[in-house]
From TrEMBL, chains A, B:
GO MF annotation: an example: DNA binding
PROSITE patterns associated with the record: HTH_HXLR
Keywords: DNA-binding, Transcription, Transcription regulation
Organism from which the protein derives: Alcanivorax profundi
Domain HTH hxlR-type per the UniProt entry, residue ranges: 11-108
Protein name according to UniProt: Transcriptional regulator
Keyword Transcription regulation: yes
Keyword Transcription: yes
Domain of life according to the entry: Bacteria
Length: 153, 153
DNA sequence: CCACAATGGTTGCAAAACGAAACCAAATAA
DNA sequence: TTATTTGGTTTCGTTTTGCAACCATTGTGG
């Protein structure tokens, strides 16, 4: 009775969640985006149990989200760094952050600003090719043949 | 030894994950965005255990992501619908979907298109006020006072 | 060089969450 | 009226989580 596998549900969202959909993984990724690289620093900043951290880091490395780099003079000192795939989760993490700020109020001491201008970021939105923002009501789900998706039931 | 609580970590991302950060919640939200509303349809389309589904729907309702609407003629028939807060997760779900398509290949039979034009959506990106896309390297984390955040360690 | 702390784990245990299946009552359809 | 659908709850065995203890290297201060 293992946890349900999401990677074979034929759904992109499911297979994304299969990689980073647990309680800790995205928090680890977010922390890495803040600059954290060392095992101990992840542990202290997140307050995560060591065995869970170990397990999550391994899974993130397995899935190509992070890499373990040997930085010891004679081995046995490591850094965990985001890969391109991991850094590409920036959109997801930022969207989550803004969603939480918008609906739960900003209980975060940290703010994200444009490095160049120091201005706050624009809200992350889904857009069409012309850059117009789209809500879920402005899109359609179609199958390979372009036919509109019909909900069973 | 309860599951670690994320809502008091003083981090927006953490408190977002506290609401929708488990394996199933975002999948339920995604399914609701496809049009699913009924308990049984969620169960069949996701293949989730009934007790877990029940628990997750309750939590989503508690957190204001969905509402339970009575649609029975004499009660006892319900629909679960997204609230504005729930619909606002569209960005997160779409970013996850695109991330997975980009890095794991598209194993999804479903495509998202602009309802008006039928064109595929633009990639979700983080942007500055001028609409320029930003990567994680183009942003800075600052505290309330505007001082740059320094990583401990 | 030696003692001591830090790093990056692993192991064992108890509590909690999960998954599957059985069961159940109300509402609806045949 | 009987059967089926809906929306659950209960039970039970397995897995995951959190905590603390332990351990082998690796660095550091003297």
């Amino acid at each position: 009775m293992t946890r349900k596998r999401f990677d074979e549900m034929g759904c992109c969202v499911a297979s994304a969640l299969n990689e980073v959909g647990d309680w800790w993984s995205l928090l680890i990724v977010k922390q890495a985006m803040l600059g954290t690289r060392r095992y101990v620093d992840f542990q202290n900043s997140l307050g995560i149990a060591k065995n869970i951290l170990c397990n999550r880091l391994s899974r993130l490395v397995e899935n190509g989200v992070m890499v373990r780099v040997d930085v010891g003079e004679h081995g046995k000192r490591y850094e965990y760094r985001l890969t391109d795939k991991g850094r590409d989760l920036f959109t997801v993490v930022t969207a989550l952050r803004q969603w939480s700020e918008r609906w739960n109020g900003a209980q975060d001491s940290m703010k994200l600003v444009d490095r160049q201008t120091g201005e706050p970021l624009a809200p992350v939105t889904v857009q069409n090719q012309q850059g117009q923002p789209l809500t879920v009501r402005d899109v359609r789900f179609v199958d390979e043949n372009g036919k509109p998706f019909e909900e069973a039931g």
